[in-house]
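RECORD TYPE: protein structure
NAME: Polyphosphate--nucleotide phosphotransferase
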Amino acid sequence: MVNIEQFRVNKQESVNLRERLTYINHNFTSAQIKEKVDHNFRTIDQLQQKLMAEEKEALIFALQALDAAGKDEAERYVFSKLSAQGLRTSSFSKPNSTELQHDYLWRLASAMPERGEIAVFNRSHYEEVIGARINQSHLEAPLPEHAKIDDIWQMRYRQINHFEQYLYENGFYMVKIFLHISKEIQKKRLLERIEDPNHQWEFSFSDLEDRERWQDHMCVFEECFSATSTKYAPWYIIPADDGDYGRWLISEILLDKLTDINPEFPKVSNKEKEKLAQAAEKLRNGDFD
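PREDICTED:
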């Protein structure tokens, strides 16, 4: 058991990523960490089954990070353990021409979970206050003049906070995870991609462009987390230099959130129980054979 609150960003906390660890010393082997994840999922599986049956609430996990921090691995090795029946995954890249013709939150609609589901966003609407800010790509959208303001990012933080509060108040709970990787480990992983023929397809030259602007990204991340971590939609900054350990922490957060929801199987009324008993009796008697 680990205290996940140490990784949470408190509301209006001034975030300094240099003070946030990218690696935590521990004495666990990869096999031991895998067992911890599997142990968590024995409970998570039960809670997810109740969440799906109850169909009242939903969870949304938004994963953000620089490239090579482990978003894809978290999706493959943690969230893939969930029942596919109640899982929805989406990936958000640069908006296409159709998406640019809508407001920047519009493209989330098709990715949103139904009640009883868990959604995972590989990148998210936060690209519109992180990547868009770094690359100034928001200027490609046909914005009206009153939206082209100097403090557009503060405006968007406010809009996102209101949007996430709206989701919360309707039973859709968003959890935002930033996989915090050191520059040294990112370099190592990018080189591994380049040098391994089986992983060269994962490498993008834009990764190097982003790396050149490392400090710009850190500043934007810090401001974003400080402005948008709330009680109803918190940010967690997860040390990601050790991928196994980071994925264990994500499983702990998932377990914690499902435990908070505390879903239950729907109660069957006495009248329904009578109907079930009658149906069972007919099945035993071969009425439907």
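COMMENT: The chain has a mean pLDDT of 94.
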